[in-house]
Amino acid sequence: MKSRLRVVLVAAALAVVLPLTGCVTAFLPKQAPATSSPVKEKVAAELTPFYSQVLKWSSCEKGAFQCTQATAPLDWKHPADGSIKLALIRHVASGDRLGSLLVNPGGPGASGYSFIADSLDYAVDAKLKSQYDVVGFDPRGVNRSSAVKCYPNPSDMDAFLYDITPGKIGSDAWLAAQNAASKKFGEACLEHTGKLLGFVDTVSAARDLDLLRAILGDKKLNYLGYSYGTLLGSTYAELYPKKTGRLVFDGVVDPATTDFDVTSVQAQGFENALRAYIADCLTGKDCPFSGSGTKAVNSAMGEVRALLDSLNASPLRAKDGRQLGSSTMFNAIILPLYSRSNWSALTELFTDVMNGEADFAFQLADSYNDRKPNGSYADNQTEAFIAINCLDYKTDGSQATLRSQAQQLAKLAPVFGPQMAYGDTCSQWPIPSTRERGPIAAKDSAPILVVGTTNDPATPYQWAVNVSKELANAQLVTYEGEGHTAYNKSNACVNNTVDDFLLHGKVPTSDPHC
User: Fold this and answer.
1) Would strands 448-455 and 474-482 be described as parallel, antiparallel, or unpaired?
2) Which residues does the chain have with pLDDT short of 50?
3) Rounded to an integer, what distance in angstroms lies between the CA atom of residue 452 and that of residue 459?
4) What pLDDT does residue 3 have?
5) What is the C-alpha to C-alpha distance for residues 165 and 181, in angstroms, rounded to an integer?
6) b/e per residue 270-298 (b: at least 16 CB within 10 A)
7) CB distance 409 to 417 below 8 Å
8) What's the rounded Cα separation, in Å, for the pair 43 and 64?
9) Burial class (CB in 10 A: 0-12, 13-18, 19+), 312
């Protein structure tokens, strides 16, 4: 991979992966005021123009939603130095309105606007749609908001994401080529994005979140964050603990983790998910692997590693001319691992590639990268993902460190560890990291619900346990199952617990172990 962060801090790229997961409701929302009046509260004089703005909403997405733009400071430390635009979309409450519920799908770099517009029924259930204005937003740097831009020509992005670096992985020549590609990418991002590139960090986005709360007219923030959205939410709670309302974090990122902590834990998480898929595959028809029991699972895991190694040595060519190497194949594999409902795609993937066919693998990898069939890219998720993470995580890109970490990863996760080693785009980034990693307590916050899935491959359950202990006022909700994130996609126990909290403020007295 061009970037370790691109693979693993997908933290888990989206709560939505393969399917279009749910339809937008067929009925039109109730009429709502065309403007949102900000709450009256005291802020610094230089912030008053931002906190006093009135949002003007207009019908969008064929009348099913309302959309608007907000204005935020480019640099929160120097608000007079320019401004940025933040894109918002809302589905108006159909019943008795409690206020706004802001939703973030993850990433970083995922579009909250598109998440709500395309997958509202996947994001929230009918109870929440009835009593909340469900608000999606593109954070700074993302998609419809003031956005990170790197390669105007899609062919350059193709080269960055799909080209196979020549040489033996981890060799001096190979690392030099990787670093050159990363440096070129970072320089292009700075050239085409400008000053904004230095201000897309999560702390700045959390300050935007408070601005949105206020100008939506809410005294307290009600928030549902998936995956990376939990890091954004916990950062908000750290900055504005007394302005927290009802916050739910699902698929939790531990703020105290380093970039290598994330890499090693996620390598093991994806490997465990692959093992679970293979065990299930061996019990059904048309499985590309054979045998039964633990021995057969171990053998199949070895086959996957051998397949990745073979693609390094002899890439497969797709009909469009692109060559399938191990990095692209890895992306194709992990995409369906986010949800058990997508495991059938893995069976088709392995069957095709074992038969020398590369087209379906590219279809999955393109979905992972939001690449359209015509070769263009649907949004700037990849660019924003890297830009945000490079400000949020400090990294040591020395060859000695990378090789030491590669050895550790190979031992911890023999199948996926070698794929998740060596990527180091951020060591070549033109702007240094701005954040020190550490636990967040948010001592004066309202209660926060922390939802963790026991076999989540992207944001491991242990992170939810950690964060539930690190936060001063948190309650853990465990879902015992597979997949990334649990609310509205697991069972009634999780759904009812989250709904009772968001709708009625009911906090479980103990972990319900759903």
Assistant:
1) parallel
2) 1-31
3) 8
4) 32
5) 9
6) bbbbbbbbbbbbbeeeebbbeeeeeeebe
7) yes
8) 34
9) middle
Give 170-211 as a 3 state SS string.
CCHHHHHHHHHHHHHHHHHHHHHHHHHHHHCCHHHHHHHHHH
| Omega prior to 108 cis, within 30 of 0 | yes
State the CB neighbour count (10 A cutoff) for residue 210. 17
Radius of gyration of the chain (CA): 22
Rounded CA-CA distance 511/71 in Å is 40
CA 170 to each of CA 61, 179, 183, 185: distance values in angstroms, whole numbers, following the listed order:
48, 12, 18, 20
Please count the other Cβ atoms lying within 10 Å of the Cβ belonging to residue 118: 18
Q: Report which secondary-structure segment, H or E, holds 448.
A: strand 448-455
First to last CA, the chain: 36
| Residue 167: partners with Cβ closer than 8 Å, 6 or more residues away | 173, 174, 177
pTM: 0.91
Q: What share of the chain is helix, strand, coil (3-state, %, to 5)?
A: 45, 15, 40
Tokens (6 digits) for 375: 């070769």
Residue 261: per-residue pLDDT: 86
Number of CB atoms found within 10 A of residue 54's CB: 11
Whole-number Å distance between alpha carbons of 326 and 331:
9
Task: Give the Å distances, CA to CA, from 401 to 135, 167, 258, 406.
Answer: 43, 20, 14, 8
- Which residues have C-beta within 8 Å of that of residue 171, sequence separation ≥ 6? none
CA distance 338 to 15: 8
For residue 21, the SS3 value is coil
Tokens (6 digits) for 79: 């608000």
How does DSSP classify residue 377? Answer: B
pLDDT of residue 394: 84
Contacts of 286 (CB under 8 A, 6+ apart): 347, 351
CA distance linking residue 393 with residue 300, whole number of Å = 35
What whole-number distance in Å separates Cα of residue 500 and Cα of residue 498?
6
What are the tokens at 168? 């033996």
Give whole-number Cα distances, 171 to 136, 165, 223, 411, 464, in Å: 44, 11, 46, 19, 37
